[in-house]
Amino acid sequence: MDLQTLWFAAVAVLWTGFLLLEGFDFGVAALLPVLGRRTQDRHLMLRSIGPLWDGNEVWLITAVGAVFAAFPGWYATWLPALYLPFVLVLFGLIIRAVAFEWRHSHHTPAWDASWTWVITTGSLIAALGIGAALGATTLGLPIDADGNRLGGAFAGVGWPAVLGGVAVLAFSLVHGAMFLALKTDGPLRAAAGTVARRWAPVAAVPLLLWAGLVHLRSGTAITAALWVVAALAVLVAWARIVVGREGQAFAAWGAMLVAAAATIFGAAYPVVVPSTIDAAFDVTIADASVSDYTLTVMTWAAGFGLPVVLGYQAWTYWVFRKRLTAEPAHEQPAEAHA
Amino acid sequence: MSAGEVWTSLISLTLVYGALAVVELWLLTRFVRAGVTTGDGAPAPGSPPEGTPDDDVPGGADGSTRDDDVLSFAY
C-alpha cells in the first residue's frame, strides 16, 4: 500500500472514530429536551458525557489536522467551498464547550436552563454541520477545474450536504439514547431504551442511503458487502435493544456506523472531493497529497504518537466505566479517581 | 471565496468571543469577590472556594455544600 492510500485510510479511520465517539455525546446533548425534563435526569445525562465529550472532540481536530497535513489540496478545496457553514459549525462547538464549563458555575434556574439549551443547540448545529461537510466531500461539491466553488457562500450546501447532516444527526440521536441506556440506571435508562427501540430502524435510513449512493457512484464488491454488513448491524442493534441488551445494541449500532463509513470512504477512494459540475474536476488523493517524504515523516510520528493517545483515551473510558444513577454523587469521585 | 465571507467570519467571531469574554469576566469577578472562605464553609487548607468553576478538583471537595446534586467536576 502506498503512503497516500495509507493516509487516506488514516483520515477515514479518524472521521469514523470521531463520529463513533462524539456521536453519542452529540446525541445525549440533543436529547436533553426530550429525556432530561426532570432535573435529576438532566444532571445524570450531563454527568454521563461530562468526562468524555472533550476527549471525543479531539478526534475532530486530529481528523481535520490529518486532512490538512496529508492532503492540503483536499483541505484547500473542501473547507473554503463550505467556509461560512464551517464557521457556523465552529460557533456550535464553541458555545457548546463553554456551556459545559459554565452551566455549573452559577446556580439559578434561568442560568441552568439557558446553558442546557445552549449545549443542545450547539450540539445540533455541530452534528448537522459536520455531517453536511462529510456528505459534501463524499457526494459532491460544485467545484471547477481549479477546485474553486461555483456560486454563492452557501452553494456548497446542496442535497449531499443535507443528506450527510441528517444522517449524522439521526445516527447520533439513537447512538446517544443507546449510550444512556447502557450508561445510566433508573427511569432514565428505561426512557432512553424506549427512544432507541422506537427510532433505531428509522434513524439508520439516511446513513444507509448516503453510503448506498456513494457505492452506486464508484463502489466495488467490497463496499457492497460492507453496506450489507451495515444494514444487518441495524437489525442486530434493534433486535438487541428490544430485548434490553444495551451493551450489545450499542456495539452493533457502532458497528453499523463503522461499516457505513467504510462503505462511504472505500467507495469514494481515491476521490476526496467529487465535483458536481464535471467528473473531470474531481480532486483525488494524487492531486491533493503532500510529497512522499512528508508522508513518510508523518507516518513515523503517528506510529509512535497514536498508540499513546489511543491508550490514554481507552484508560479514561475504563476509569469512567461505571453505570451512573441519580443518587447523590458524593461517593462517585472516590471511584472515578481510584 | 469572497471578501464578504472573510469579513463575515472575522466580525462574527469577534462578536461571539467578545460576548463570551463578558460572561467570563462576570464569572471571574463573582468568584474573586466571593473570596477563599465563604462563611460556614471552613474549607480545608488548599481546597477551592465554594462554587469554583474548576472541574478538575479531585474529590469535588465542595460537593456537599451545593444545592444541586452534581459535583462541579462531574458536570
From TrEMBL, chain A:
It is found in: Cell membrane. Keywords: Cell membrane, Electron transport, Heme, Iron, Membrane, Metal-binding, Transmembrane, Transmembrane helix, Transport. The chain crosses the membrane at residues 6-36, 57-76, 82-102, 114-137, 157-178, 222-243, 250-273, 293-315. Signal peptide: none annotated. It is a multi-pass membrane protein. Its main location: membrane. Coiled coil: none annotated. NCBIfam families: cydB (TIGR00203). Belongs to the cytochrome ubiquinol oxidase subunit 2 family. This is Cytochrome d ubiquinol oxidase subunit II. The lineage of its organism: Bacteria, Bacillati, Actinomycetota, Actinomycetes, Geodermatophilales.
UniProtKB/TrEMBL annotation, chain B:
The chain crosses the membrane at residues 6-28. Keywords: Membrane, Transmembrane, Transmembrane helix. Residues 38-75 are annotated as: Disordered. It comes from the Bacteria. This is Uncharacterized protein. It comes from Blastococcus brunescens.
